[in-house]
Specification:
Elements (H helix, E strand, L loop, with lengths): L1 E10 L6 E10 L2 H9 L7 E4 L15 E4 L6 E5 L4 E5 L4 H10 L2 E2 L11 H6 L16 E7 L5 E5 L4 H7 L8 E8 L1 E2 L2 E10 H11 L4 E6 L5 E10 L9 H25 L4 H13 L3 E6 H5 L7 E9 L3 H15 L7 E6 L14 E9 L9 H13 L3 E2 L9 H7 L3 H11 L8 H8 L5
Parallel strand pairs: 2-4, 3-4
Antiparallel strand pairs: 1-2, 5-6, 6-10, 7-11, 8-9, 8-10, 12-14, 12-15, 13-14, 13-17, 16-18, 16-19, 17-18
Helix pairs in contact: 6-7, 9-10
């Protein structure tokens, strides 16, 4: 069954992208998707939207057709021998994790949130952390995609391998991802340990943290404090959960509500930002914590304050130098920066547009919050960080803010022109393009 509506407004989760669409389609089957693609009027465009967690305009469907896969979200099969799960593209990572846990299995790695649809997460290169593990697209073993011509193509390492390499981080520009087969592992618990170190110690010891199964750290700007986090696989049983009251008090009241109120005050008086950072660093991060829990529960963090986010993937060997330059930039230019700066790691990637393509990678993310959906000054800071990261050979996260164009990407990605050629072959009329994709592929906004 396919349902739809004409005209309307769509905005992403953070409220940073808003667009008017001509029609909204909500198919619940592959035949429904095919019907929509095949009946699209000549010259009109179709954009697939997931959960809307991208800060960039990658899902902007201004004056075009919007295709929501929210109802196309079923598990199609579980192969215990191969340790693979096959799902429809609209299922969320959280729904996959819960389903797998009920069958004694798990995804090997996850990012900080699992509210994204699996297709959206894969298409934009979503990743977790851990040098022993790859990105989420690296967990895909087979996929099917619906092209602009209405063909359903299957791709894997052995079948249409170029399409497989391109579509795993395809930015929604090659067609509509329909089904995905993803590798999984026996269910496991994680022992997560958080602590606090000073800036100098952090830069001297990040290689040690990379020996852990999973590791990340957060620098709190305008302080000398770094919050560390490591997680190791364990056979130990989960530790007793905090009471609902304690979890609400720590995570919701202090970690979100009161922090958001304080950030709203800094919108009026920006020079208070360093003091707010120092206060919440002491309140939230000044003690060691340890817990054991099911893997997906440990990987995920509650994130409720809307935000602008920029993240760059750099060669892991440059981590220390780039972080030093970032801190110098903030201090030299006097930027008032919300906390935190997040640092994560991964194995090399082989998806053509994977941010970790061909090299062990460090991801450095910067944040400016949007308290109660208010806009705050961020662009000068983000543009300066963007220039610094690009100068260091970094690659921007496709789902987050950046200011790069096709000439930059051609230097960043060895298979860039191969991707564009395949994209043109699959979608010569540009059905799956939008203004954002035109700008990164061709340096212009084409209608």
């Amino acid at each position: 069954m396919t349902t739809g509506s004409t005209g309307g407004t769509w905005n992403n989760w953070a409220g940073t992208v808003r667009c008017q669409y001509r029609a909204l389609h909500r198919p619940d089957s592959e035949d429904g998707i095919l019907s929509i693609v095949n009946s699209l009027p000549p010259g009109e465009r179709l954009k697939v939207v997931g959960a809307g967690h991208s800060c960039s305009s990658i899902a902007d469907s201004s004056d075009g057709h919007l295709l929501s896969l929210k109802a196309y979200n079923r598990v199609l099969g579980l192969d215990r021998d191969k340790l693979e799960i096959t799902v429809q593209a609209g299922i969320t990572l959280r729904e996959i994790a819960v389903y797998l846990s009920e069958h004694g299995l798990a995804l090997p790695n996850l990012g900080s949130i699992s509210d994204q649809t699996v297709a959206g997460a894969i298409s934009t290169g979503t990743h977790g952390t851990g040098t022993k593990w790859g990105t989420l697209p690296q967990q895909v073993t087979r996929l099917t995609i619906i092209t602009a011509a209405g063909a359903v193509l299957a791709a894997s390492m052995n079948e249409h391998p170029d399409l497989f390499a391109a579509a795993r981080v395809g930015l929604g520009s090659l067609g509509v991802l329909s089904t995905l087969t993803i590798s999984c592992v026996p269910a496991f618990n994680l022992r997560a340990v958080s602590g606090q170190v000073d800036w100098r110690t952090a830069l001297q010891s990040y290689n040690t943290w990379n020996e852990a199964d999973h590791a990340s750290f957060w620098w709190i700007p305008h302080t000398d404090t770094v919050r560390t986090w490591t997680a190791e696989r364990t056979q130990d049983l989960p530790t007793p959960a905090r009471s609902r009251w304690r979890a609400w008090y720590d995570d919701h009241l202090w970690g979100n509500h009161l922090h958001e109120c304080a950030l709203l005050g800094t919108k009026v008086v920006p020079f208070l930002i360093p003091g707010v950072n120092r206060f919440f660093q002491r309140r939230l991060f000044n003690r060691r914590t340890e817990r054991v829990d099911r893997s997906d529960r440990v990987f995920n963090f509650p994130i409720r304050i809307k935000q602008w986010v920029m993240e760059y993937a750099i060669d892991m060997e440059k981590t220390r130098k780039v972080l030093e330059r970032l801190r110098e930039l903030i201090e030299r230019e006097g930027f008032r920066v919300h906390m935190p700066v997040e640092v994560r790691f991964s194995q090399p990637d082989d998806a053509w547009l994977g941010m970790a393509y061909g090299r062990p990678t460090c991801y450095i993310g910067v944040i400016m919050y949007r308290p109660f959906n208010r806009t705050v000054p961020f662009e000068s800071y983000f543009r300066a960080v963007d220039a610094l990261m690009a100068d260091a050979g970094g690659r921007p996260h496709w789902a987050k803010v950046h200011y790069r164009g096709p000439d930059d990407f051609r230097q960043m990605y060895p298979r860039w022109d191969d991707f564009l050629a395949l994209r043109k072959e699959l979608d010569p009329a540009g059905v799956f393009l939008n203004r954002y994709l035109e700008s990164i592929f061709h340096g212009r906004e084409k209608r």
